[in-house]
């Protein structure tokens, strides 16, 4: 088991959509980049839906997300797990990110999208109860995970669900 820590958010004050993962996987942590695993579909979806070239360097992709008013972060600040799988997260080790501060700094966020069921469940259990009215006007939706471990849903079906980020 190892203690892992998430990255800072990719965002700015104009962000309107927030995409939340649970915790970066091992490849992402090694590369210090969100969704760095070559089989993760996240950047392919951003290419298809927002015109962000998936082969552009990471800094360029991040800048283009911000230009399109999309923020990217993880629900967890830190946790303990034995692999990249969300199912291996040790419940008692969960420390969520500071969403009260984040939403205060990003009042234009209208849509919060969870990249998979685990990020949604952790948010509902460890974050939402402490936010009170901060969630009132924000729409929350779960999208199919872009992880290569989520192979039971076709690319086309996942992409169709992910169209929600474009309004």
Description:
The structure is a single chain. The protein is globular. The longest helix is centred in the C-terminal third of the chain and has 11 residues. The strands form two sheets. A four-stranded parallel β-sheet has the order 3-2-6-7. By secondary structure, the chain is an alpha/beta fold. The model has no long low-confidence stretch (mean pLDDT 94). It is built from six helices and seven strands. It has a single domain, classed as Uracil-DNA Glycosylase, subunit E, CATH 3.40.470.10.
Q: How would you concisely characterize the structure shown here?
A:
This protein is an alpha/beta fold. It is 31% helix and 19% strand. It has a single domain, classed as Uracil-DNA glycosylase-like domain (Uracil-DNA Glycosylase, subunit E).
SSE topology sketch:
Layout: E1 2-5, E2 17-21, H1 26-31, H2 42-50, H3 58-67, E3 70-74, E4 76-81, E5 95-96, H4 99-105, E6 111-115, H5 117-127, E7 139-143, H6 155-162
**CATH architectural name:** 3-Layer(aba) Sandwich
How does the helix and strand content classify structurally? Answer: alpha/beta
Q: Outline, from the CA principal axes?
A: globular
Residues in helix, %: 25-40%
Count of alpha/pi helices: 6
CATH class: Alpha Beta
CATH superfamily: Uracil-DNA glycosylase-like domain
Query: Could you name the CATH topology?
Result: Uracil-DNA Glycosylase, subunit E
| Order of strands across the main sheet | 3-2-6-7
Task: Please tally the β strands and state the result.
Answer: 7
Measured between the Cα atoms of the first and last residue, the distance is 40 Å
The profile of the biggest β sheet is:
4 strands, parallel
Low-confidence stretches: none
Q: What does the radius of gyration come to?
A: 15 Å
């Amino acid at each position: 088991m190892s203690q892992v820590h998430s990255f800072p958010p990719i965002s700015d004050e104009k962000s309107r959509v927030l995409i939340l993962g649970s915790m970066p996987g091992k490849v992402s942590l090694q590369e210090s980049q969100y969704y760095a695993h070559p089989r993760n579909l996240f950047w392919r979806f951003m290419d298809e839906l927002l015109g962000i070239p998936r082969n552009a360097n990471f800094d360029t992709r991040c800048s283009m997300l911000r230009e399109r008013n999309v923020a990217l972060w993880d629900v967890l600040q830190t946790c303990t797990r034995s692999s990249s799988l969300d199912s291996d997260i040790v419940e008692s080790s969960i420390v969520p990110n500071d969403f009260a501060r984040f939403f205060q700094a990003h009042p234009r966020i209208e849509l919060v999208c969870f990249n998979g069921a685990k990020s949604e469940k952790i948010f509902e259990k460890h974050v939402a109860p402490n936010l009170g009215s901060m969630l009132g006007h924000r729409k929350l939706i779960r999208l199919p995970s872009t992880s290569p471990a989520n192979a039971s849903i076709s690319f086309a079906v996942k992409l169709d669900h992910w169209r929600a980020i474009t309004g």
